[in-house]
Amino acid sequence: MAADPRSHERRALLLSLAVTGALGSAALVWGIISGSSVILFDGLYMLAGIVLVAVSLVAARTAETRPTPDYPFGRHGATPLAVCLQGAALLATLVYGASDAVAVIVNGGSDASAGSVVAYGIVSAALSLVVMIFLRGPARLSQLAQAELVSWRAGALLSLMVAVGGVVAVIMRRSEAESAAAYVDPVLVLIASAAIAPMATSLLRQGLRELMEAAPPAELRANIEAAAAAAAAEYELPDPIVRATRLGRRLYVEVDFLVQPGDWRVEDEDRVRRFVVDRLESSDYQLWATVELSTDPTLIED
């Protein structure tokens, strides 16, 4: 029996929540003691992530609820909405970090302990990579786990840049470039913000596309079109009109065929629908399929 993707999703989110809380709290303390703005920035990024993981957990539970009279199609929109919040919050954190870095540069730089910065960067990057490895499997089936994977990937990149910057600062101070070394820490924040911004933008774009009922990813769209084409060949039907969109784990598919009057019965339409549904049903998605044979082109065309 195939594993339930929802249980994998829940475990992945709970792990992310636990590690985010522990690492974020440690980063804040570490940043205050070392005087490093980039470590403080990373800590704030992590602690902001706690709220986002909690939102993802609520979204996952909401998306699983059964349809009601008020929500006859269910609440699968909670998933892309949570992804949008992930992207928007990540962008807001980057703007805050970049603004703080500019202020530090204007005020003459930072006197952060370079050795402490290097140690933190290595520890944080190692933990981020471990979490990324764990999330890689669930992320194939869950958009919420995928959003967490993107966030941890951004965190790993930030931590690696922290470590590299700390090494650079150590070298500069040993070569009597103390004044220039003071600017390494805030410059790192600016570089990290620029590097992570595309990831945050991608999350926001992905969530907005789903909420606006955009077409599903190319591979999924190709599978749907192949199933519709196979039905047309099997029952000698004309080329189908195919529409599809994905909302969280719900996959909406509409396949329409324009046929001649008097040639088809309701049970024939049922057989075509069953043919398409059997080829698209999967444990990965909850399929909502509509297959229609119509003699009126105005009912099925845009």
From TrEMBL:
The chain crosses the membrane at residues 12-33, 39-60, 81-105, 117-137, 149-171, 183-204. It is found in: Membrane. Gene3D superfamilies: Cation efflux protein transmembrane domain. The keyword Chloroplast does not apply. It is a multi-pass membrane protein. The keyword Zinc-finger does not apply. Belongs to the cation diffusion facilitator (CDF) transporter (TC 2.A.4) family. This is Cation diffusion facilitator family transporter. It comes from Gordonia prachuapensis.
